[in-house]
């Protein structure tokens, strides 16, 4: 019985004697099936290959990024946040091995995992079992969970406080349950927003953008972007980190609002 992993997106499926017929995540219009067709691997095969390793970078006090090298699947970055002694893994990457687990445990382990949206669920159950912790996913995205687990907690409503200083907000947009993490740091007043790609950092780092599908270039409607901006208006944050190691620095909250205004103006034909 093997737990197949989609090579294109990194989603892990339940134990089975046969590979899935298709990857449900990749077949959907927000992702894509590789031009060479559906391909599978397993976590065990990845570990035995000797190809992959996880790179840890200290981004700032209390914030560490984790990225698989060479890139696998979508190639996203996960973040480990420590606030007031609580350690939260924000989003997930597919590759996990004994060294990764031991290195994290030496620093204090993981108390909880929270996900922005289904493209980053990957091997979340492997991570949760390794660290004996819960996984938080918004209930609006329940249908996209491919490997069920008793460790998954489906939260509801517009916000959820995971721990002091760490609050999830449902923004929707890219997915119905699309969530971001607001980190109010005890050490200073400069809060951080971690967005996965519910909000994406642009090439010009003072701007962000919003999409229904990034690989297929399908925009979100103006109404959805306006809702996202309105939900974020009450929140102050000086920095914003996306899922691809891009950052907007001070004032990031203003950057989100001006970016939303520009996006809506473009869709409505007022920008150019």
From TrEMBL:
SMART domains: Lactamase_B (SM00849). Residues 75-239 form the Metallo-beta-lactamase domain. It comes from the Bacteria. PANTHER family: METALLO-BETA-LACTAMASE FAMILY PROTEIN (AFU_ORTHOLOGUE AFUA_5G12770). This is Metallo-beta-lactamase domain-containing protein. The lineage of its organism: Bacteria, Bacillati, Bacillota, Bacilli, Bacillales.
């Amino acid at each position: 019985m093997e737990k197949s992993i989609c090579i294109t997106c990194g989603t892990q499926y339940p134990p089975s004697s046969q590979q899935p017929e298709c990857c449900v995540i990749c077949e959907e219009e927000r992702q894509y099936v590789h031009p060479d067709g559906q391909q599978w691997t397993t976590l065990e095969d990845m570990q035995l290959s000797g190809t992959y390793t996880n790179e840890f970078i200290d981004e700032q006090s209390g914030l560490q990024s984790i990225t698989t090298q060479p890139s696998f699947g979508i190639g996203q970055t996960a973040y480990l946040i420590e606030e007031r002694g609580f350690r939260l893994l924000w989003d997930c990457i597919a590759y996990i091995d004994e060294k990764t687990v031991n290195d994290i445990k030496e620093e204090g382990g993981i108390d909880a995992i929270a996900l922005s949206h289904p493209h980053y669920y990957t091997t979340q159950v492997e991570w949760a079992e390794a660290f004996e912790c819960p996984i938080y996913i918004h209930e609006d995205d329940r249908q996209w969970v491919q490997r069920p687990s008793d460790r998954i907690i489906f939260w509801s409503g517009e916000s959820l406080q995971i721990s002091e200083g760490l609050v999830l907000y449902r923004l929707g947009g890219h997915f119905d349950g699309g969530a971001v993490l607001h980190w109010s740091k005890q050490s200073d007043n400069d809060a951080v927003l971690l967005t996965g790609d519910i909000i994406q950092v642009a090439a010009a780092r003072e701007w962000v953008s919003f999409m229904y599908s990034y690989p297929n270039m399908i925009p979100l409607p103006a109404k959805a972007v306006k809702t996202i901006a309105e939900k974020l208006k009450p929140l102050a944050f000086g920095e914003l980190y996306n899922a691809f190691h891009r950052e907007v620095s001070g004032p990031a909250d203003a950057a989100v609002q001006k970016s939303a205004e520009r996006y809506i103006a473009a869709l409505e034909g007022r920008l150019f």
